[in-house]
Structures are given as structure tokens and as C-alpha cells.
Amino acid sequence: MVISFLLLVGLLHKYAFGPLIKAIDERRAKIQSDFDKAERELVEASKLREEYVTEQTRVRKEAHDIMANATKIAEEKAQEIVTAARQEADNLRDRARAEIEREKEKAIDELRTYTVNISILAAQKAIEKNIDPSTQKKLVDEAIKEVGRLPC
């Protein structure tokens, strides 16, 4: 009976346990291979995530830099426009002042000419009438009053 048992154990070992152990070893190797593959893919995914985060950070910084630069350029352009407008306003004001000054000088010259003409006219009348000094003074005063009524 012992011999039969040992013979049975030997046959089971050779024909049953051998293929079973081989199948278990193959399954263990497949699981280990899948585990190693999953670990490599996890490392690769982690690496890709880090690259993604790095790239995302770079893109955000670049976008921020572009916005900052655009804002700076816009502020500079706005300042240039304001400066140009102020310069143009100053030029317009200077031209207006010069024009006013020319018109003022022209009016003063016309007033002088008119005053001289009235004075000459008063003198002519005084000479033509050959009048006494009090009448002469009266005529000169009237001429001065006429000049005083002129708009300046």
C-alpha cells in the first residue's frame, strides 16, 4: 500500500503537478510581466504629466509675458497719443496767440491811421476856417472824442 501510494504520488507529480506547477509559473511570469509593464507605463505617465505641467507653466508664463508686453506697448502708444495731442494743442494755442497778436497790431495800426487822419482833418478844418483858439480847441476836443468812441 505504501508502494502504491508512492507510485501514485510519483505519477501525480510527473503528470499532474508538473503541468500545474508549469502553468502556475507561467501565470506568475505573466502577472510579473504585466506588473512590470504597468510600472513602466506609470513611470512614463508620471514623466508625461511632469512634462505637461512644465509645458503648461511655460505657456502660461509666455501668455502672461505677451499680455504684459501688449499692455506696456498699449500704455506707451496711449502716452505717445496724449503727448502728440498736447503738442498739437500747444501748437494750435501758439498759432492762435500769434494770430490774435497780428490782429491786435493790425487794429492798433488802423486806429493810429484813423487817429492821424482825424487829427489831420481837424487841423485842416482849423486852418481853413482860421478860427480863434477857443474854437480850435473845441474842434480838437471833438476829434479826440470821436477817436474815443472808436471800438478798440
> Which spans have pLDDT < 50 for at least 5 consecutive residues?
none
Per DSSP, what share of the residues sits in E-state strands of 2 or more residues? under 5%
Using DSSP, what is the number of strands? 0
Note the overall shape. Answer: rod-shaped
Q: Number of helical segments?
A: 2
How would you state the average pLDDT, rounded? 87
**Run of helices and strands:** HH
**What helical percentage do the residues reach?**
over 70%
Helix/strand class: mainly alpha
Largest sheet, strands/sense/barrel: none
The domain tally reads: 1
Spatial extent as radius of gyration:
58 Å
Question: N- to C-terminal separation?
Answer: 153 Å
General description of the model:
This is ATP synthase subunit b. Belongs to the ATPase B chain family. Pfam families: ATP-synt_B. This protein is mainly alpha-helical and 152 residues long. It has one domain (2-148). 95% of the residues lie in helices and 0% in strands. It has 2 helices and no strands. It has helices at residues 2-129, 133-148. Helix 1 runs antiparallel to helix 2 (133-148). It is rod-shaped, with a radius of gyration of 58 Å. 1% of the residues are buried.
